[in-house]
Amino acid sequence: MVTTDEKGPLTAKKKSVIIRSCDGDEFLVSESAAVLSTSLKKILEEKEDRLIHLSDIDNKTLAMVIAYLSTHADDGLSDDLKRSFDQEFVSGKEFDVLKYLVLATDTLQVTCLCYTVAKKMADIMKNKLVEWVRREFDIQNDYTPEAEAEIRRLDAWAWDDRQLEDD
Amino acid sequence: MSDIPSEILLEMLLRLPAKSLFRFRTVCKAWRRIIDDPSFIKSHNNNQHSDTTLFIRTSTGTLYSLSLDSLNYTNGQQTIDVTHVKNVVRQGVPRLPAFPVASCHGLILISHYDIKKIWVIWNPLTGEFHELPQPDIDVRLIGSGLGYDSVSDDYKVVRIDEMCRNGKVVYQTFVYSLKLNSWKMIRDCPCDFSWGSQGVFLNGALHWISWDMIIALDLAVEDYRQLPLPSVRLPVDKRLDALGGCLILSDAYAMKRAWVMKDYGVENSWMDLFSSRERDSMGGLGYLWPIAYLKSKGQLIMQHDSNIICWDIDKSCAKKVTIHGLPDFLSSQICPGSLFRLDDNCCVGGSVAAKRTAGVKRKRKKANTSPDGVWKRPPQGVLRVDVDACFNEKENPHTVGGIVQR
User: Which PANTHER family match (chain B) (predicted)?
Assistant: First the structure.
């Protein structure tokens, strides 16, 4: 499958690259969009090959990142429109999806998307229970029950006033 | 540990409110190490520009907080969470006055003109507060302020007193260092300004409004400089705020005019926020105060009596929301949550404690008397606030007010 971004197929003027996800899907992306990722920019500077294989980003995540890059590379869009695109882009996404996205932004070095996603993840996390956080981040609790209870007791006010969520 | 790279985890944690971070210290020991790290606390403080927690103080002194982001200016009606905030209640410590009060990075200075009153730096989120030793002076307070000096990584309190020295009126300035827990006198303030003025903190300096200029006290070098006012005819009663990383000058009380200094220190970067006709469209009568400047959204949030007005600077239009269920005569101020522990970071313990001897001696009077009248020595400088506000309004931790848009 080759998916083109909004700018359409390869033209003489606009250079494109093909990016392949870890599950083999290929995406045709304009070079102006690809170079917004610091990693892709480096790869393109170093080699002639217009096919880039990303071994640790799946097709769904890659499609999202490319949609983001293409929008931000579009000179016809105002900053306001790009900002509202960013808001739309992360809204309603599951925490799991955001986790894959943020990992992809790390691999591809897309700083502004990383910040947008990190902000959204923080928004989801802020009213969650500690147990929820441990589950989502796959973290082993290394406190003894007594030590944990003591920290909670000292800052009991932090638990006092809101309905904390576990889903 | 999870597979999220540590830099990304840090970016995420930096974007969490301080209150959530206090809870997430119990996720695991590694998270607690990150959250308690002084450099993380510093970065978190500097990241709070977008935090729009609004503190509301009623005329009887009860405090509430709400999130300005939770206000929806398009829906007809909504409910919002309003959280009750515990006041500092301690003998000898003045009550929190009406807003605006001196504040910096989510810490608040409770000061008072009466030399017998004990000044405190207060973290309203944790309830912790730190009592300042009283400087050995007896003069007329005209200005105070709380700020942060990034060079020495220290919070500093300033008091400016009007006094007569060698037959001349001078504005004597004392600076208190939280790390050293002591006051020291610096160069006199070069000019007078209106009495009781609270300095606003921005870019490492405290700022006060004078008749024809802004006086800035750089907290790192501890010296004064001047900043220009807009070169237009200005109102006599002026008010200065530091909101959204900018100085905002307005006509005190009625806010008939308002200006923002877009580039700090640059005279011709002062820009009108609205014209007098636009001001009239927001309702001519009543008090109007700026409470937040959301630079990226181009919005100025203001309090108009007990309503909140959102002024869209580019589109020149105002939206108003009314919060029901709160008493009239409110004052309000933005105050982000701070992770700063007033016990770990100030003068208590370690090498810093040795420097305390240099400080002005603490004059304690009735402050050490507990409610049952028995003299008790407080734990080193800091107390958590356990007592609730002793005012008439009953405690109501989850007041939910309906909001009606006009």
Answer: BNACNNG10540D PROTEIN (PTHR31672), F-BOX PROTEIN CPR30-LIKE (PTHR31672:SF13)
Q: Do B397 and A160 touch (CB under 8 A)?
A: yes
Same domain? B266 vs B144: yes
Q: Is residue B222 located within the same domain as residue B94?
A: yes
Instruction: Please give the ipTM for the structure prediction.
Output: 0.86
Domain made up of A2-125: CATH architecture: 2-Layer Sandwich (3.30)
Chain A contact present for B49, CB below 8 A: no
- Closest chain A residue to the Cα of B81, Cα to Cα: A162
Q: Minimal Cα–Cα distance from B144 to chain A, Å?
A: 30
Q: Which domain holds residue B159?
A: 37-405
Q: Is residue B200 pLDDT above 70, yes or no?
A: yes
User: In this structure, are B140 and B228 located in the same domain?
Assistant: yes
Both tokens assigned to B334:
């933005």
Which burial class, exposed, middle or buried, applies to B220 when counting CB atoms under 10 A from its CB (0-12, 13-18, 19+)? middle
Chain B CB within 8 Å of residue A135 CB: no
Buried b or exposed e, range B26-58, using 16+ CB within 10 angstroms: bbbeebbebbeeeebbbebbeebeebbbbbbbb
B357 band by pLDDT with thresholds 50, 70 and 90: very low
Surface of A (54-113) touching B: CB under 8 A: 83, 99, 102-103, 106
